Amino acid sequence: MAEIEAIAKLVNQLSKLPGVGRKTAQRLAYHIISLPEEQVRELAVAIFNGKKQIHFCPICGNYTDTDPCAICGDDSRRKDIVCVVRDPRDVNAMERMREYNGMYHVLHGVISPMDGVGPDDIRIRELMTRLASGEIKEVVLATNPDVEGEATAAYISRLIKPMGVKVTRIAHGVPVGGELEYTDEVTLLRAYQGRTEL
Amino acid sequence: MAEIEAIAKLVNQLSKLPGVGRKTAQRLAYHIISLPEEQVRELAVAIFNGKKQIHFCPICGNYTDTDPCAICGDDSRRKDIVCVVRDPRDVNAMERMREYNGMYHVLHGVISPMDGVGPDDIRIRELMTRLASGEIKEVVLATNPDVEGEATAAYISRLIKPMGVKVTRIAHGVPVGGELEYTDEVTLLRAYQGRTEL
Questions:
Q1: Is B25 touching A (CB cutoff 8 A)?
Q2: Interface contact A19, partner B, CB < 8 A
Q3: Which of A87, A151, B1, B173 is placed for a possible disulfide with A95 were both Cys, Cβ 3.0 to 4.6 Å?
């Protein structure tokens, strides 16, 4: 059978997504084909726009569709406290707990010698530049409580403390070895409230 | 936090897909955003074209991007035998075993009184029209070996037999209660070879 090219292409594209194997991609493809054309158009447009309209905020490094992002540009938020996280997803996790009202700094990675990621490969230099303005009084290190996250927090702490800025680490209310992204709001709230100075 | 609209829209669209919950949709969305724009365009285009270029073959009812479909239009295939399946996916499953060389007829469903699906809601009438030409000598009923599949096969068999056409049912090599779509080629081959006349 000459497989239908448009379906083969769709299955191929879908199977590139994380956690989507060949079988799942086929199931998704046939589902998509069975949808009304308008719904499929919405999906395709959302995917394309999701990519096209999003870029990194020049200040915090989070995903944004404005310059600066909605958080950096929000005058009702505290400018003197910065929460350092690994990923944009972790900003979402912090925001979900509805307690933190400061700025963010997204590292886009953590120091991981095993993976060849050093301090210069993540946005630590940009953090230093922000701190140089003197406006920031506290840095909350909210990297994941795993080996790389702890090492990254320790590294950043050592860099910042000589500058006289208060450095805190979210408490281990977050299960050790866990992922910030999958932590529920209450646990994350405890972790934030129990943060300790490094 | 004013959630970024383009991301929220993407997550919303992705979470409509079967088997994709909110968490998975978020993971997929962030993955898509992190891809190069060219790859995202390919994905969006594949989704849109997958829908736009595909329609039902006027003869067999399978998905196709040509008229008639590649199988119905293939002169090297036998025209005197028709395999009746529930879904386009099942055509793929049959083709994967590389033994069957005849035509197909896709019912787009099975008789299921519980779900309010009667004989007139699936493509049985179209099958009768095809048989009326007299060209078809054998109908292989390859609906799934579950309650609805068996009932549909029995119903079609009763309709066709008075017309003097040979009616066969794929053997229960396919595990009872299983899905044709997830059956491996060897099992499906046995099921096909062991088909019995009804």
A1: no
A2: yes
A3: B1
